[in-house]
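Thread amino acids onto this structure.
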């Protein structure tokens, strides 16, 4: 591994290593307390964040390194500076870079010219760090990937795309239930690639517009915001009406297995994509998901820095 830009470039072996390393880091953090000594992580942020920033910054500090936050709104990039020079200069200062930017092409260009590892901390196209930690969380809770995950809501977003890649690589059956139409369903090319992974792993992919049908016998029920960063506020009222049948509520959870778990990458808008009685229930593991961002990303940085 040179960079971590998209899950579609990962193998089952790669993800299994990172998941197991994340669990090891979580159980024995003291073993890695000096693993990043004298190393510098540069964090480039275009999109706002709570979990991504804190998990990377605290994770690097806990391993003995330094983390530097750089807001791209205040940057010369794209104004007076070309990404080719930007990336090369950054490479002379830092040892590893994580970037939370809107454009997938931006992260790819950054990696193309970088002389150090680059991590995709989120783009509009994919959210690989989130799904890496989600896979770790699923394995902790279920002890297997021989399960069914159902995703309800906005299919045309980064979390759905990365879930399709991650689940199909690891052999998890995944059903995605979204409103009908190209503005709501997962990118067709993402589905095509995921199905090719599923053929190798033996998993099953279903894209449907029927939430109740998708939720039947699910082991994991997952949802995300109906208003991604890319969606203008002017479309909120319309989207709330369109997505209402895809809300994760008690009725939906009762269609899943008795021991089904609820997942959400957060932040959640209570009363929209999920109801209070679900997100606050014993079945909800959203806080465990959030915590595991810290451990999985430590494992990822260790792997990219060849310290694991």
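Threaded sequence (308 positions):
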């Amino acid at each position: 591994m040179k960079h971590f830009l998209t899950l579609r470039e990962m193998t089952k072996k790669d993800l299994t290593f990172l998941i197991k390393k994340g669990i090891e880091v979580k159980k024995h953090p003291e073993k890695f307390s000096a693993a990043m000594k004298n190393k510098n992580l540069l964090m480039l942020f275009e999109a706002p964040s709570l979990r991504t920033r804190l998990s990377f910054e605290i994770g690097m500090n806990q391993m003995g390194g330094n983390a530097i936050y750089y807001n791209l709104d205040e940057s010369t990039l794209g104004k007076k500076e070309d990404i080719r020079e930007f990336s090369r200069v950054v490479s002379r200062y830092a040892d590893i870079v994580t970037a939370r930017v809107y454009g997938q092409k931006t992260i790819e260009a950054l990696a193309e010219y970088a002389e150090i590892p680059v991590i995709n901390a989120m783009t509009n196209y994919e959210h690989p760090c989130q799904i890496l930690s989600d896979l770790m969380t699923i394995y902790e809770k279920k002890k297997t990937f021989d399960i069914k995950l159902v995703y309800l809501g906005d299919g045309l977003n980064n979390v759905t795309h990365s879930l399709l890649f991650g689940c199909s690589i690891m052999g998890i059956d995944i059903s995605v239930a979204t409103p009908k139409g190209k503005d709501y369903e997962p990118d067709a090319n993402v589905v095509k690639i995921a199905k090719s992974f599923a053929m190798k792993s033996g998993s099953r992919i279903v894209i449907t517009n029927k939430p109740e049908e998708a939720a039947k016998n699910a082991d994991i029920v997952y949802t995300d915001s109906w208003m991604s960063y890319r969606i203008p506020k002017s479309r909120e009222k319309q989207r709330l009406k369109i997505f209402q049948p895809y809300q994760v509520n008690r009725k939906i959870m009762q269609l899943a297995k008795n021991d089904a778990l609820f997942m959400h990458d957060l932040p959640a808008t209570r009363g929209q994509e999920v109801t209070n009685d679900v997100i606050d229930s014993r079945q909800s593991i959203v806080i465990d998901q959030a915590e595991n961002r810290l451990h999985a990303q430590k494992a990822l940085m260790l792997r990219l820095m060849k310290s694991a």
